[in-house]
Structures are given as structure tokens and as C-alpha cells.
């Protein structure tokens, strides 16, 4: 599966700062020192109802991570999946009378278009669950053969008790885990499971549903968590720098994925940092596919909204915060974009070397994008109010905003 084209990232003078970021697993801020190649895995979409503002906010956060690392002169090895076969996708296709593969392809294509418009840097490896199945089957067989998984009426389940570190990502108690498991695709009440929290690794073929050859597992399709594990281990290996996604993936998805990988390899941890973006609400409720309260990036673009303004609206909130999308937020972003473009359109201006360092410092501090925007706002206000004579300043500001914030002026 192919990703989307990359926009050029301008080089800035000097060198950026190492990233300090909040790690869900340790429940604190850590400083990442990835070495010459930084490795990041971000969980992708299930391709229906793409791309809403909640999606965009999440991928914007991890785009900033890449930009901070690139500014430190590192290379970035970024991997993202597409869950192009799963119960919610099949249910949506059935509801709408569509072929599930056509639905997945159409929505994935739309997602690519939106990511391109928003100037999100693409992953080096963009992998669909279906194409990953040949690599998933051997992992499930290994877990089963090692006693970390078991069969139940043809399905294969992972035993959470096989990983001594289980629970170390989310830090939830058993009852909270059980409730979230039932809410987010698990089946804690299924009779015969060794532990209600045990997640499915391989679902035996069901009538009328797609299935693939699973070798000794029989025909079926993979569970949700093992999909990402197989892709991450194949392309990044253990101990990669960041496992990222929305905060709703903390449990069960990232918790289970970590345990799968740790049980498979005997190594700990799967990722050095588990980083989670906050949820976006609309009209007082979390934006979600099930509720249908979605604002789509493509609809905003079709209505004439500049993608750079959409990106500024996202950047105006800290990535870990839960926030609510409103027309006022978008209007403020449109106005900010106009001010910034007017300021850098002047032939000369006030010096901007200090601004570069302010933006770098803000983003290195747990991706504090609102502080970065405020720094640019201050330069813009002085630029408009003062006659400067630095001919290089407007261009430097434009390159800084592009390179570090992904906003083209």
C-alpha cells in the first residue's frame, strides 16, 4: 500500500533540541534520545468516515514529532498501518450495501488526499492489515506454541497472564479494563476464556465474512492488536522510540499490543514512550463514528477553507488536551493565517533568529504548539508595528513555520 507525497521540509540554521514528551506508561515526561534514526509507529485509521478532525488532530501531533526530530538532523523511520479489515468496517459496508474492499479503498484514498492537503509528512511504510496477514500468521502460531495463546472453538486468544508487564501501559484496574474491553471491540463475557480480558489473535472464518489461509490456524482473519504488532516488529523491531495514537487506544489496543510483542520476543519494553493525543468533541460530545458527530477535513476543504487554517486550528490546542471544535476556533485560525501571511509578505522585517529558538524550545517541551503559535504571534505583532531592515527575516519566519509547524505561508 502506498502512502502520500511528502512536502519538502526546509532546513533551518542551527540545530533543534531533543524532544521531551509525556509517556503514558511511566506517567511522566521523558527525554528521548533516539540516535541517528528515530523510530515511530502510529496507529492508522479503520477506513470508513475518514478523515474527521479527531483523526487530523492525532496525526498532526505525530507530524510535529517528526519535524522536531528532523530539525535535530536525525532521520525518521515512520510506520503507520491501515486496518482495512475489521468488524466496524464490515458492519458499515453491510449497512450501506457496499463491497467492503471498495469502501476501504475509497476512504483510504480520501485520507491520503487530506493528509497531503494538511502537509502531514508520510510514513516510510504504510501497511494494510490485509497485506500484513502473511506476517501475522507465524506470530500467532509462535504465541500458541509457546503457551501464550490458546484455542477456543476455532478462535485463538492471547493469554494476558503470559506477559508479566501486562497493565503497565494503561495502569487501569481489572474492572476498568473489563468495561473498556467490552466498549472497544473485546468480548470479556465470552464463556470459555481463561481471562475475560484475553484478546483475540485469530478469528476463525465466519459465514459471509472475508477470510484468509491461516496455515495451522485454519482460515480466518487477524485480531486488531496483533496486526499492529506484526507490522511494527517487521519494520521497526523492539524498543522503538514512540508508539503513538489517540488516547482511546491506550486500552486495550496499546496495552495488548505491548504484551503481544513482549511475549513474542521476551524483551521489554515494546516502545520507549507511549504517546497519546487527546480527543476532539463536537457539541459537547467526543467526535466519534458511532455518534456521527463528525467534522470532515474534506468537507472543510470543499467549502473553501485553506488547509493551512485547518492546521493552525489544530495547533492552537496542546496535543494531549481534550477540546471542542467550534466555528470560532476555525475563524480565529483563518484570521491568524491572514496576519502571518501579511507579516511575511513584507520585503524586510525585524530579526527572527530568536523566534526560531522560541519555536524550537516550545515544541521540544512536550510539543507545546500553542506556545509556538504565541511566539510567532509576538513576532508578527512587532513586524507589523515596527519598520525593520532585516531582509532575511520574513523568509526565515516562513521557513520556520513551514519546517516546524507544517504551515505554508
The level of helicity is: 40-55%
* Total beta-strand segments: 14
Given helix and strand content, the structural type is alpha/beta
Based on CA atoms alone, the radius of gyration comes out at 22 Å
By CATH's scheme, which homologous superfamily of one domain applies?
A: HUPs
Mean pLDDT: 96
* Stretches with pLDDT under 50, minimum 5 residues: none
Q: What strand line-up does the widest sheet have?
A: 5-4-3-10-11
CATH architecture heading of one domain: 3-Layer(aba) Sandwich
Largest sheet: 5 strands, parallel
End-to-end C-alpha gap: 31 Å
CATH class of one domain: Alpha Beta
Instruction: Tell me the number of helical segments per DSSP (H or I, 4 or more residues long).
Output: 13
Report what the structure shows:
It is globular and about 75 Å long. The two termini are 31 Å apart. The strands form 4 sheets. A 5-stranded parallel β-sheet has the order 5-4-3-10-11, with helices on both faces. A 4-stranded antiparallel β-sheet has the order 6-7-8-9. A 3-stranded mixed β-sheet has the order 13-12-14, covered by helices on one side. It is of the alpha/beta class and 409 residues long. The longest helix has 19 residues, at 53-71. The protein contains 13 helices and 14 strands. Helix 10 crosses helix 12. It has helices spanning 53-71, 87-96, 100-117, 129-145, 174-183, 224-235, 250-265, 297-302, 307-315, 327-344, 353-364, 369-385, 393-405, and strands at 20-23, 28-31, 37-42, 75-82, 125-128, 149-152, 155-158, 200-204, 220-222, 240-246, 271-277, 280-282, 285-286, 323-324. The protein has a domain at 30-297: HUPs (Rossmann fold, 3-Layer(aba) Sandwich), CATH 3.40.50.
Amino acid at each position: 500500500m502506498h502512502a502520500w507525497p511528502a512536502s519538502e521540509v526546509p532546513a533551518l540554521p542551527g540545530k533543534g533540541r531533543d524532544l521531551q514528551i509525556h509517556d503514558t506508561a511511566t506517567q511522566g515526561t521523558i527525554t528521548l534520545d533516539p540516535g541517528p534514526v528515530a523510530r515511530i509507529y502510529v496507529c492508522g485509521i479503520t477506513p470508513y468516515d475518514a478523515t474527521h478532525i479527531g483523526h487530523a488532530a492525532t496525526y498532526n501531533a505525530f507530524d510535529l514529532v517528526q519535524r522536531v526530530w528532523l530539525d535535530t538532523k536525525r532521520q525518521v523511520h515512520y510506520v503507520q498501518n491501515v486496518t482495512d479489515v475489521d468488524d466496524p468496517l464490515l458492519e458499515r459496508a453491510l449497512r450501506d450495501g457496499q463491497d467492503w474492499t471498495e469502501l476501504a479503498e475509497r476512504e483510504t484514498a480520501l485520507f491520503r488526499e487530506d493528509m497531503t492537503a494538511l502537509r502531514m509528512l508520510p510514513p516510510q511504510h504504510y501497511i494494510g492489515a490485509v497485506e500484513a496477514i502473511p506476517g501475522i500468521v507465524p506470530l500467532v502460531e509462535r504465541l500458541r506454541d509457546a503457551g501464550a495463546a490458546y484455542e477456543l472453538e476455532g478462535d485463538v486468544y492471547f493469554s494476558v497472564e503470559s506477559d508479566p508487564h501486562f497493565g503497565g501501559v494503561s495502569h487501569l484496574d481489572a474492572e476498568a479494563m473489563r468495561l473498556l474491553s467490552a466498549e472497544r471491540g473485546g468480548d470479556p463475557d465470552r464463556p470459555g476464556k481463561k481471562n475475560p480480558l484475553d484478546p483475540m489473535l485469530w478469528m476463525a472464518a465466519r459465514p459471509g465474512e472475508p477470510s484468509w489461509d491461516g496455515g495451522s490456524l485454519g482460515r480466518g482473519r487477524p485480531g486488531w492488536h496483533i496486526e499492529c504488532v506484526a507490522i511494527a516488529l517487521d519494520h521497526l523491531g523492539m524498543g522503538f522510540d514512540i508508539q503513538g495514537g489517540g488516547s482511546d487506544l491506550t486500552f486495550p489496543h496499546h496495552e495488548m499490543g505491548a504484551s503481544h510483542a513482549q511475549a513474542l520476543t521476551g524483551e521489554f519494553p515494546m516502545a520507549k514512550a507511549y504517546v497519546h493525543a487527546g480527543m476532539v468533541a463536537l457539541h459537547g460530545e467526543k467526535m466519534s463514528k458511532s455518534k456521527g458527530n463528525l467534522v470532515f477535513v474534506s468537507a472543510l476543504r470543499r467549502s473553501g477553507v485553506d488547509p493551512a487554517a485547518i492546521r493552525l486550528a489544530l495547533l492552537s490546542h496542546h496535543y494531549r488536551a481534550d477540546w471542542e471544535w467550534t466555528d470560532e476556533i476555525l475563524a480565529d485560525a483563518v484570521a491568524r493565517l491572514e496576519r502571518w501571511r501579511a507579516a511575511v509578505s513584507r520585503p524586510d522585517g525585524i530579526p527572527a533568529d530568536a523566534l526560531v529558538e522560541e519555536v524550537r524550545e516550545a515544541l521540544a517541551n512536550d510539543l507545546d504548539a500553542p506556545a509556538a503559535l504565541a511566539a510567532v504571534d509576538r513576532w508578527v505583532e512587532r513586524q507589523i508595528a515596527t519598520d525593520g531592515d532585516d531582509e532575511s527575516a520574513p523568509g526565515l519566519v516562513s521557513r520556520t513555520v513551514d519546517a516546524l509547524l507544517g504551515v505554508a505561508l
